[in-house]
Amino acid sequence: MDNLSIINSFPKDFIFGTATSSYQIEGSNYGNCGRSHWDSFAKKPNKTYRSQDGGVACAHYLKWNEDLDLVKNCGFSAYRFSFSWPRVLPEGKGLINNEGLSFYDKLLDGMLERELKPFGTLYHWDLPINLAEKGGWVNRDTPKYFADYTDLVMKNFGDRLYSIATINEPWCASWLSYYCGEHAPGLKDLSAAAKSMHFILLAHGKALEVIRSHNHKNAGIVLNKAYVTTKDDNEQNNIAAELYNSIHNDWFDSAIFNGEYPKNVLDLFKEHIPENYQKDLEAISQSIDWIGINYYTRAIVEHDKKIKDINLVLTKGPLKKTDMGWEIFPDGLSKIIQSMIKKYSLNIPIHITENGMANKDEIAKETINDHERIGFYYSHINEVKKLLDKKIPIKSYFAWSLLDNFEWAFGYSKRFGLVHVDFETQIRTPKKSWYEFQSYLLK
Ligand code: FCB
Q1: pTM strictly above 0.90
Q2: Ligand 1, from 20, 175, 401: best to mutate by most atoms within 8 Å of Cβ?
Q3: Which of 180, 209, 408, 423 counts the most CB atoms within 10 A of its CB?
Q4: Which residues contact 250 (CB under 8 A, 6 or more apart)?
């Protein structure tokens, strides 16, 4: 099937939405926004595609009204967005940027006027530079400042948020950024990675306490999940895959749901894990109201003794790939959700907070025929339907992304949007996938 008619077989109260994040669309040059570590990372040689940054991005700061219309007119009932920490607190703490507060004020009212449910996220990676320079997520003070920032957001906007997520993809904000060096701050340091993997979760725990103090009852965290498998089934590969799975998935799940870290990763981190980390696990494992899952692909792991510390690499699989080179593997979505439920006896609502593909979209005359993207959405939404049929409590599905945007290290070279953005003129053009969602969501 290559259409999205399946949407019409979903329960009436199921939420379809679309997602973005602050740094990827707003434009950090506008509105007296403070600098984040992504602004400085992009300035270093060879960190992002053509040294591109999010200074202008989609100029959403100026065009938010038009963008909310694009969400609404497509038929979505929810919008997932993130607050930019440096936009409201340019130095990470202390001085407040009132222009930043008034931007989110207008944005939230704009959502409510259009009857869009606001799904807010507190941290989608734009760490204020001032805090980054003091070690960022390697510093035990950063979670404390994150709690103060959370308080500011909740005080001003808490009552307008349908839901609030603390951190988007803590694995990316820690391991990928401090061990793999692919995201800001670009470190390749096991000790820093171990600390960041703990402090990013402590930030989640501390923020949750603040959210509760504001009486908000729909709080969660968003985890990016990879379905982990091995290249060939042999003992060394299996151990490698297990370690990768523990770093990517279980470190976060097990801390949040069981208040403990997996043993194989603790063994790897040894003396690098922050002192007294056990004490923090209580805050980290407080109950949450829902869990968000971002799903894109699977990870195929192979033992490789040449790789320092972890002795493993990710290898390319045989399946059809998106423009990111990520295999299209819809089955993985069901597999990871079912395995999480089983392993952690989960019984809280689940939101699919991100799913989508980068594609080299064909632009023919005025139309953008991204039929590959429609096929991708169909196959993954079909998995969600299968899970619902098994009575798994999935409450929403968010397409990543509303707009083509700043795709981190890939700059503007990868297009994930339902809506095409011309980065010279900032003209938005809905793609065929946008019309496809619209034709079933507005039915
Ligand atoms: C996720 C991020 C999101 C976007 C997509 C493609 O890991 O949350 O910002 O980059 O990947």
Answers
A1: yes
A2: 401
A3: 408
A4: 262, 265
